[in-house]
Inverse folding.
């Protein structure tokens, strides 16, 4: 046999072994990743399996996948625990998450992918050297590389922000998942190998996105209320409040929505109140009750922690919302409870004081109507408290006389 | 639109010239529809350097072990040399491994054909 251009025996064996590994990697990758990213992945993607295989426990992951049990490998390929992984694998995982987002998946799966996308690109961008080397291999200029590195670092955040923006108007489930991903940034960045500055910057970027969305919603909300008032359409006002509630939930119970609602409430509520259309007012208030009660709870929590300034500007409006809420119920116990809460929240609010005093007087009168007056009669206590809260109440002198309280 | 590096299994580290050559070669064998997609991919990958780099870095990276290149087929023999027969192309490993002797059919195949078909050059 004459010499033909054959490879040496060892290199052929080595090549065969590599080929076998490749085939196994592709089979394992197909089993683990195809259900999540679809079947049309490039063969290069299976390189991720070769990297996993070289990690501790990786051989077992791949072996299990080849035996038809791909869960371990799937977990390795879509892991959130990327802090100690080689950058090549983090790069693969970043692209896998982007592919997964193009498929129909559950909210939880999409949330995992968005978080993964954010995390992987933040880590790769922070490290820099790996992406620079990849850019260099792709014959990129230094100028393009540096500019792109900045862009890639926020690739995940950009994607999430874009999804959130698109979902704002209709409060889409897709956008809601994006908001959840943004809200999870503080906890997520804590698990990543990032500098404190990078963590803070990512968290700030996420909060700015939420603030920006809340601000965009505020404009739409105000316009809707204005239009509802101009047309005197109560139905429009109820719809605007219902949408406010939906947006509040969609934005992850965003406090800015609560603040905007309590600020807007008096303007739309007073004309209806003056017309004594309490049922309509009740309908308008109903969707936003969770918002102003959440604001109330937060203010009380802050107060307990010694912080009396953070929500100072919203004390009065939040208490006023509780007063309106108290006025719209026919249940005397509920009305008293809501008025008490309004007074506790903002004792200087005149309306809270007047309404609570009236309710105390009402209760005293009901008690008096029930039976004889004892020295420690609860009616007496109610009248005394009503006087303390709002002494100028016109009905007080007569009541005080009835229960035997000195003027 | 999916990343062309992934859609067409292109090497993310390939230069613009290499990408152009690769896509041109594929275009020669492609249907009309495929040609349009290949052209679109070529435009996306070559018109803006930064765009190409972005796509290269956001595609699956090539991290597989490099395989040794497949040996090139032997060149045509020079004048005066005997033509190669099939045994010249059988890996020496196979011979060394003491595989079973070739069957009569394999032997027959190993013989050069008595008449070479004329090369069709009309397409060029």
């Amino acid at each position: 046999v004459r010499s033909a251009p054959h490879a040496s025996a060892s290199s052929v064996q080595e090549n065969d072994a590599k080929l076998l590994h490749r085939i196994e990697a592709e089979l394992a990758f197909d089993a683990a990743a195809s259900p999540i990213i679809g079947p049309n992945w490039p063969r290069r993607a299976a390189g991720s399996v070769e990297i996993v295989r070289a990690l501790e426990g990786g051989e077992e992951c791949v072996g299990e996948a080849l035996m038809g049990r791909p869960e371990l490998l799937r977990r390795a390929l879509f892991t959130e625990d990327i802090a100690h992984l080689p950058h090549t694998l983090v790069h693969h995982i970043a692209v896998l998450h982007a592919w997964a987002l193009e498929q129909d998946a559950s909210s939880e799966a999409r949330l995992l992918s968005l978080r993964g996308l954010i995390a992987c690109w933040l880590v790769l961008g922070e490290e820099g050297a790996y992406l620079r080397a990849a850019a260099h291999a792709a014959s990129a200029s230094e100028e393009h590389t540096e500019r792109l590195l900045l862009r890639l670092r926020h690739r995940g955040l950009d994607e999430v922000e874009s999804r959130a923006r698109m979902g704002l108007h209709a409060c889409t489930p897709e956008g809601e998942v994006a908001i959840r991903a943004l809200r999870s940034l503080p906890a997520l960045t804590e698990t990543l190998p990032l500098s404190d500055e990078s963590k803070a910057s990512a968290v700030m970027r996420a909060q700015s996105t939420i603030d920006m969305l809340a601000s965009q919603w505020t404009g739409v909300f105000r316009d809707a209320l204005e239009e509802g008032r101009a047309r005197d359409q109560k139905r429009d006002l109820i719809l605007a409040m219902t949408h406010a509630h939906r947006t509040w939930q969609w934005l992850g119970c965003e406090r800015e929505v609560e603040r905007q609602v309590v600020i807007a409430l008096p303007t739309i509520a007073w004309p209806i109140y003056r017309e004594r259309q309490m049922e309509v007012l009740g309908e308008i208030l109903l969707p936003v009750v969770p918002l102003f009660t959440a604001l109330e709870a937060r203010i009380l929590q802050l107060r307990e922690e010694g912080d009396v300034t953070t929500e100072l500007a919203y004390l009065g409006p939040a208490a006023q919302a509780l007063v309106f809420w108290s006025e719209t119920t026919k249940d005397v116990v509920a009305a008293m409870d809501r008025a008490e809460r309004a007074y506790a929240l903002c004792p200087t609010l005149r309306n809270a004081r007047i309404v609570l005093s009236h309710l105390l007087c009402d209760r005293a009168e009901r008690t008096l109507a029930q039976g004889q007056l004892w020295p420690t009669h609860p009616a007496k206590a109610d009248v005394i408290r009503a006087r303390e809260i709002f002494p100028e109440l016109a009905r007080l002198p007569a009541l005080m006389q009835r229960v035997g309280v000195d003027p | 639109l999916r990343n062309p590096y992934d859609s067409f299994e292109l090497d993310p580290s390939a230069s613009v010239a290499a990408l152009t050559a690769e896509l041109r070669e594929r275009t020669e064998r492609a249907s009309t529809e495929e040609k349009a997609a290949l052209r679109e991919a070529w435009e996306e990958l070559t018109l803006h350097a930064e765009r190409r780099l972005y796509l290269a870095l956001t595609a699956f990276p090539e991290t597989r072990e490099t395989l040794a290149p497949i040996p090139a087929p032997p060149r045509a023999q020079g004048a005066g040399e005997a033509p190669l027969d099939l045994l010249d192309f059988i890996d020496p490993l196979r011979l060394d491994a003491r595989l079973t002797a070739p069957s009569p059919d394999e032997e027959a195949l190993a013989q050069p054909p008595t008449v070479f078909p004329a090369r069709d050059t009309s397409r060029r």
Notes: Chain B touches chain A through 40 residues (CB under 8 Å). The helical segments of chain B are 4-7, 16-29, 32-46, 49-57, 92-96, 104-110. The longest helix of chain B spans residues 32-46. Residues 16 and 46 of chain B are 6 Å apart (CA to CA).
